[in-house]
Amino acid sequence: MRAAALARLVPRIALAFAAAGCGGSGDGPTGGNGPPALTNTIVFVSDRTGTPTIHIMHGNGDGVQLIATNAGPKSDPVISPDGRKIVFTNGDITAGSASPLWIVSSDGTGLAQLTTDGANDMRPTWSPDGSRIAFTSTRDGNAQIYVMNADGSGQTNISNDSADDDSPAWSPDGSKIMFASTRDSLGSGQSEIYTMTPSGGTVTPVLVGYVPEWSPTGTRFLFERASQIWIANAGDPLSARQLTSSREFHFTPGWLPDETKIVYASSISGNEEIWSVSSADGSGATQLTPDTDGENYYPKWSVH
Fold first, then answer.
1. Which helix (H) or strand (E) holds 49?
2. How many CB atoms sit inside 10 A of residue 68's CB?
3. Which of 215, 234, 235, 241 gives 20 to 30 Å between its CA and that of 170?
4. Cβ contacts of 201 within 8 Å, gap of 6 or more
5. What is the rounded CA–CA span in Å between residue 289 and residue 176?
6. Residue 261 belongs to what H/E stretch?
């Protein structure tokens, strides 16, 4: 298995087994008061420059653009709800060294570090109003779900469990955070998806799987199971069905804003590349990044 694929699979093994030119607001910064808002834009990580760095592109794969940040490998970039900022992890999450969360504006300005705890901070997700960020952190010795303000203040553990809790996803109405955990695995190490409120509290099991992702309307969610992409209706776990079916690994699903398609990373072409398919039945698989531009992964579509 390639190193890039392994780097993304390692946290899941722990759970399963123990702007300009790219969909901006059209005229650059709105009224000169800030960076352009990214619309119909996919943010992703690519090693085409030799190091995993953040890039953006149109929803059809055109207009690829580098977002220059700081040194070090990048992972888990996510565009803010207003399209003007990107939060991401900086550092190698498999190396045992610190990998904090950083934030940068859509035009590459305003780079700032959000977490400084010396652990792995990863899998960020924005609250719908963009005021807070939930994320996974290993600062307590195992993976836990934290919430903080968008400026990095007020970092709080909301999952507080001895099991691994990972991959939070904030619901579009702001009322729930979906996440994956081994807390009820009874020693099997099997990961199951749960929901809880953004302040913690009551945890409700949903179904077996990991890396959940709410749809923009909150009516459905994507998740991974056995390295394939699945989809289910919210509140109806029996509706779960598989969207990908090849023998290769498929990772980190995300939604097109109108929910007609999903985007994900796959090794089906040999390299790890970004693909899209219909959210209705998994048809129309389209490779968005070419094999000639290194490996590409961690895709997330903008909210708008």
1. none
2. 12
3. 241
4. none
5. 33
6. strand 261-266
- Give me the domains of the chain, ranges plus CATH numbers: 3-219 (2.120.10.30)
Distance CA(112)–CA(82), nearest Å, equals 18
DSSP 8-state code for residue 7: H
Element at 260 (helix H, strand E): none
Place of tokens 């969360």: 101
Q: Distance (Å, rounded) from C-alpha 195 to C-alpha 225?
A: 17
| CA atoms of 281 and 286, how far apart (whole Å) | 14
Q: How far apart are CA 96 and CA 137, in angstroms?
A: 13
| Residue 125 three-state SS | strand
CA angle 76, 136, 71 (to 5 degrees): 45
Q: Do 194 and 205 contact (CB within 8 A), yes or no?
A: yes
Q: What is the pLDDT of residues 179-224, one digit of tens each?
A: 999 998 766 778 999 999 999 989 999 999 999 999 999 999 999 9
Q: What is the DSSP string of 50-101?
A: SS-EEEEEETTS-S-EE----SS-EEEEEE-TTSSEEEEEES-TTTTS-B-E
The string of pLDDT tens digits covering residues 52-74 is 999 999 999 999 999 999 999 99
b/e code 175-185 from CB counts within 10 Å (16+ = b): ebbbbbbbbeb
What is d(CA 85, CA 104) in angstroms, rounded to the nearest whole number?
6
**Strand pairing category for 286-287 and 41-46:** unpaired
Residue with tokens 């190490």: 189
